[in-house]
Write a structure and sequence with these properties.
Elements lengths: L10 E3 L11 H6 L3 E4 L3 E2 L6 H14 L4 E2 L2 H10 L5 H6 L2 H8 L3 E15 L2 E14 L5 E11 L9 H17 L4 H11 L16
Parallel strand pairs: 2-4, 2-5, 3-5
Antiparallel strand pairs: 1-7, 5-6, 6-7
Helix pairs in contact: 2-7
């Protein structure tokens, strides 16, 4: 049985053709030590996307040198305080959210796309995210970024056009039935928080 080799085509964009240098003046002035990651707003059609994504975001933020409040505990506390809906959380006063946990900054994330679409004879998996970090004392935006990541699996080439076509269709069907978004989510997070680059500068607990 011929093994199927999946070849990923990953495209990273920041949502604009020109990359602008970020202004970290407000970030350095606030000098946050702890970051509260609130529940993710989901604009995609995949209802399970927020829970899966939350499991991928804590590590890259913590590795930047910040104390990160446990996301599951945060979700439970917010629910106990009448904020069970992510949209309501994002519309709440930043200072009140931060004060509830004693956080220096609040990170808001929106999932714009989290889908697998059949295009011609292949399936393209897409993850599109927006990140915004706000000061817990003033509500001022400290940092923002966006990531658009795509992956298109393909079968290996055997030289037989018809056999390769069958393999490509089979691979596309498997990806459409059970797409794996997590590698793309981790890729997007890693790219967003890379510094020097688009990410936030290292925090007080960073080894850097």
């Amino acid at each position: 049985m011929r093994k199927i080799i999946l070849i990923g085509l990953i495209v990273l964009t920041s949502g604009c053709a020109t990359v602008h240098k970020k202004d970290y003046t407000a970030f350095f002035a606030a000098a946050p030590r702890s970051i509260l990651i609130v529940p993710v707003v989901n604009r995609s059609v995949e209802v399970t996307a927020p829970n899966y994504f939350l499991s991928s975001i804590t590590i890259p933020v913590a590795e930047q040198g910040f104390y990160v409040f446990p996301v599951n505990a945060v979700k439970r506390v917010l629910e106990d305080n009448g904020l069970s809906d992510a949209d309501l959380v994002h519309k709440a006063v930043v200072q009140k959210l931060a004060a509830l946990f004693g956080a220096d900054a609040v990170l808001y994330i929106t999932i714009n796309r989290w889908d697998a679409r059949w295009i011609l004879l292949s399936t393209t998996i897409t993850v599109d995210l927006t990140y915004v970090l706000k000061d817990g004392k003033t509500g001022t935006e400290l940092w923002a970024d966006s990531r658009h990541v795509q992956y298109t699996p393909q079968g290996s080439s055997s030289g037989n056009i018809f056999a390769d076509l069958i393999v490509d269709v089979a691979v596309a069907a498997m990806e459409k039935a059970a797409p794996n978004y997590m590698p793309l989510a981790r890729q997007a997070n890693a790219a967003a928080f890379t510094y020097p680059g688009p990410g936030i500068p290292p925090g007080p607990y960073s080894k850097k």
